[in-house]
Every structure is written in C-alpha cells, then in structure tokens.
Design a protein that fits this description.
With about 80 residues, the protein is α+β, with helices and mostly antiparallel strands. It contains 1 helix and 3 strands; from the N terminus they run E-E-E-H. It has one helix at about 40-60, and strands spanning about 15-20, 25-30, 30-40. A 3-stranded antiparallel β-sheet has the order 1-2-3. The longest helix is centred in the middle third of the chain and has 22 residues, at about 40-60.
Amino acid sequence: MDFNKIPKQFCEGVVAGHSEENFVIIMSVGENAHAYAITPQHMKRLVQSLSHQMEEYEKKFGVINAAWSPGIESPIQPKDIKG
C-alpha cells in the first residue's frame, strides 16, 4: 500500500474510551466523526507505535509542548449500545 496515495483529512479531535472488551477511538473532522472499535491488544500496539513516532519526531524537530487532560468521558459508552 502506498501511503502517499491515500486521501487524507486533518483530524480536529480525537477521544477514546473503553469497556472490558474493546477500546473505541472517535476521530472528528468538522461536524463529521468516525468511531473505531479495537481490541485491547491492538490498542496497546497503537499506543506503542504512536509513542515511537512521537519520539522520532521530537528527535528531529524538537520537543512538542502539549497538555493532556485525563478524565474526559467518551461520547460512546457501553450502556448506550443496544444489542
């Protein structure tokens, strides 16, 4: 797969939540959003990959100053899913 040929959008917001069985990542662009459910194992690998990419970026371009605020509740909760 040629990643240079994949259409791209600027993601304006990302939130994540979890249940015992999966993680949900919601990415928003304007008023549109897509939710992705992934296994805990995939989430762990995603975090490892993102951490590696961030380390490589900061080695090349310098440290990024950003604050993270934990405790933001995911807009999708297991209780909201009707099955």
